[in-house]
Amino acid sequence: ASRRPRTSTGPCGAGATGGLLKRKFPGTRVIGIERNARAAALARAHLDEVVCADLADVRLDEHLGGRPVGALLLLDVLEHLADPWRALVAMRAWLAPTSRVIASVPNVRNLRTLEHIASGHFDYEARGVLDVTHLRFFTRSTLRRMLEETGYEVVAIEALPHPAPGDRSVERGAT
């Protein structure tokens, strides 16, 4: 049986993940949403379409042509939104009952962060769990609760191993 091309969308950065999806699953249409104009310009080289807008405010209906999104990728995005609950509710309009959402967030309940907080430190960093651009912090249970409160069925939550300090090849997604 031939596989019908699907549409995948989500915040895209410079488009590396979406480009990988297109190579791995030929015929998949990938629409990226990116609020940073420089990153959006880079992503256009890899994706079918890039909407330069804030995820919380984007109107994607006109870009979907009445078709639902098969997969919505929210990879390290929700923690950057002032109101991820509102965004998650709005994005449900893009989905069909068979659509899948894959989300990732840094887990604030990790031992390194808890150790720092317990010793009286809550210092923002350039990257990682306490990234200076993070507006929201989640644990496994608060992520599940937010998704369920906004109408999503949580099928699985899995921990992704954190790369060892200094292992830049893993952090950049190199294999």
Secondary structure blueprint with pairings:
Blueprint: E1 7-11, H1 16-24, E2 29-33, H2 37-43, E3 49-51, H3 61-64, E4 69-75, H4 84-91, E5 95-104, H5 111-118, H6 140-149, H7 168-171
Parallel strand pairs: 1-2, 1-4, 2-3, 4-5
In what order do the strands lie side by side in the largest sheet?
Answer: 3-2-1-4-5
How many beta-strand elements?
Answer: 5
Q: If you compute it from the alpha carbons, what radius of gyration comes out, rounded to the nearest whole angstrom?
A: 17 Å
What helical percentage do the residues reach? 25-40%
Whole-number average pLDDT? 80
Element-by-element helix/strand order: EHEHEHEHEHHH
Shape: globular
Give the low-pLDDT segments.
1-5, 167-175
Largest sheet: 5 strands, parallel
Number of helical segments? Answer: 7
Q: What's the assembly state of these chains?
A: single chain
- Our measurement of the CA-to-CA distance between the termini, rounded to an integer number of angstroms, reads 31 Å
Structure overview:
The chain is an alpha/beta fold and 175 residues long. 29% of the residues lie in helices and 17% in strands. It contains 7 helices and 5 strands. The protein is globular.
